[in-house]
Design brief:
three-stranded antiparallel β-sheet; about 270 residues
Length: about 270
């Protein structure tokens, strides 16, 4: 199994599951820092202009070949961040073509632990003896049942990075809105506009509760430098959703954090079939 660092999987979790994590890149002050490998300070944005990039075809080709060797030829399933958010998908497609037909690439359509849930479930299927096709189907199925929502303090970071349309960003900024965003068809789009942070959090929780319905869910609350706010969201979710199978609070990684900005809170929700 292979994924990328946009999955926000903790190193120990990925290693225990047998998942290799390809680093995405943050460029700070002329330095190329690999997420999950190089030391990236929490306040990296203060060091100057920040840009990000996906994993390269060369990096992924190497990782896929190593994973294929570890599988003794059984095959590799690679679950990556939505192609609508990162160049990593195109790099993955090129790398898979270079390695051969024993590599299957999954566009998760999501980010954060939305990617992580699909990778972990596929890894469990592989550990249980499922063949390559079955592992691939499991990753696709979990991705299709996973949703991601986010509340940001400001839309500037997303606008600069091209992750949300300029018009939406300008409207939100001009009206001092606190937007609730979600990933729809692999792209980050505006779901609702609210006037205050508290109302935005309320709408965020409403949206996730609606997705859950009466089914069991796994939830991860992500944040950028606002652990207290994330804890509040986690508590509200426990109150609203009856069948929470697991609930974790994890920081966004540096790459995602660079795009959503300080104060952002997001939730990945994976719904049972």
């Amino acid at each position: 199994m292979v994924t990328d660092s946009a999955s926000c999987l903790e190193f120990s979790t990925a290693r225990a599951a047998g998942i290799a994590v390809a680093p995405l890149h943050v460029f700070v002050g002329g330095h190329d820092l690999r997420e999950g490998i190089d030391d990236i300070p929490e306040n990296f944005a203060a060091a100057g202009p920040v840009t990000t990039s996906g994993a390269s075809p060369g990096e992924l080709t190497t990782m896929y070949r190593e994973a294929l060797d570890r599988s003794e030829g059984a095959g590799v399933v690679a679950v990556h961040i939505s192609r609508g958010l990162s160049s990593t998908w195109e790099a993955a497609r090129q790398a898979a073509a270079a390695v051969g037909d024993r590599v299957r690439v999954v566009d998760s359509g999501v980010a954060g632990m939305g990617v992580g849930y699909a990778a972990l479930s596929a890894a469990r299927a592989a550990a249980g003896g499922a063949d390559l096709d079955a592992v691939y189907r499991e990753a696709v199925a979990v991705s299709s049942r996973t949703r991601c929502f986010i509340v940001v303090d400001r839309l500037d970071h997303l606008r600069r990075g091209g992750r949300i349309g300029t018009a939406a960003a300008l409207v939100g900024t001009a009206l001092a809105m606190k937007p609730v965003l979600h990933l729809h068809e692999g792209k980050l789009v505006l779901r609702e506009k609210t006037r205050t942070s508290n109302k935005a959090i309320g709408k965020l929780v409403d949206a996730i509760a609606a997705e859950a319905g009466e089914k069991g869910v796994a939830l991860t609350v992500h944040h950028v430098q606002c652990a207290d706010r994330a804890a509040i969201v986690a508590s509200l979710l426990r109150e609203r959703i009856s069948l929470v199978r697991e609930l974790n609070i994890l920081p966004f990684g540096a790459v995602l954090g660079a795009h959503v900005g300080p104060g952002a809170v997001g939730v990945a929700v994976s719904v049972e079939p």
